[in-house]
Amino acid sequence: MTTNKKECVAMLLAGGEGKRLGLLTKKMAKPAVYFGGKYRIIDFPLSNCTNSGIDTVGVLTQYEPLALNTHLGIGTPWGLDHRKGGLTALPPFVEKAGGSWYLGTADAIYQNMCFIEQYDPEYVLILSGDHIYKMDYDKMLTYHKEKQADVTISVIEVPWNEASRFGIMNTDAYYTITEFEEKPLTPKNNLASMGVYLFTWSYLKQFLMADASDIDSEHDFGKNVIPAMLDDHCKLVAYPFSSYWRDVGTVQSYWEASMDLLDPDSPLRLNEDNWRIYSANPNQPPQYVANSAKVSQSFINEGCLVYGRLHKAILFHGVEVGKHSVVSGTILMPNVKVGQRVQLKNVIVTEGTTIPDDTVITSQKEEIIVIDNETKFEALTMLT
Questions:
Q1: How far apart are the first and last CA of the chain?
Q2: Is 117 annotated as belonging to a binding site?
Q3: Can you tell me the distance from the alpha carbon of 198 to that of 154, in angstroms, rounded to the nearest whole number?
Q4: What residues form DSSP beta bridges with 369?
Q5: Per residue in 124-143, pLDDT tens?
Q6: What pTM does this model have?
Q7: I want to staple 287 with a disulfide (CB 3.0 to 4.6 A). Which of 70, 127, 304, 347 is the partner?
Q8: Which of 16-20, 50-54, 94-98, 187-191 has the weakest average pLDDT?
Q9: Cα angle 127-131-133, degrees, rounded to a multiple of 5
Q10: Is 47 annotated as a binding residue?
Q11: Pfam families, per this entry (predicted)?
Q12: Closest Cα to residue 207, out of 182, 179, 181, 226?
């Protein structure tokens, strides 16, 4: 028996391109996108692993990995910087001529079976790197054992009018999954997959190998592996989750989830001592809020200089807001410089962007504007 044996290994899929996030993912993978004034999206599943007692995490990277790999480092912020397990970045690699990028979510795990096997785990937890939520995976593991399941899939009730956007689980009264429908046009229920899968490894390994040899497969868990396991009469169960969970796959959903954090009644609270969200610290000087400033319902991170007015604003580290400027419903990413007499409403400004004096950019909540250093401010001001 290997001395590195782990009961459960987590595999975090973090190679998403995130095309629907537009400028936010122009130079970085979706899981590396800044979120919540201090964090990146991937900090949430990583912190969930740490808080759940899972100390071995493989992070599967692919698209624009530089910012993500720099952020991950050796896993120190999440307590994953140890030799036996810890955090390991797993980019695609060419084992022989003709190697390629990961072909799908299942192929990504298949290509890294050797990483998993060195820990001889009983269970493998598959996570998405681009969702905002707090979840105790240890409770899910206990549920998986009690149900004597081969696969446990975490599900959440979504509004019926959105159900066709998700993989939908049809279950019996005991939450045993009887049918899986990938983004059905006419869903039979509203139990949506959260992209959190817990597998008994001995079963998953067999199906990964079978899927890899299927030339017609898209090598995807939702489209191929899960349906194949159902067809083979494996025991699949749904794990109901009722707390906060958001898929921030669009600019609109990203902005809405960010504004949720500023709601005093939000179910997702970042200041809970018993379930911290960890991240790399920018090590900036203290924030400075001048006499001329007026701040309400906002996050202001380290190194910020605020001379203007903020309402429902999220400022990452190193942001400056000039005198007589008004910033509302807006997210300012690291090192953004906002000039004087600027008005920003319902806007997202990417890292390092400078907003000239007297700029006015406002948008409706249904049409959030994203700005970067290549934005033509004169034209944009005329349109708003």
A1: 65
A2: no
A3: 8
A4: 347
A5: 999 998 899 999 999 999 99
A6: 0.93
A7: 304
A8: 94-98
A9: 95
A10: no
A11: Hexapep_GlmU, NTP_transferase
A12: 226
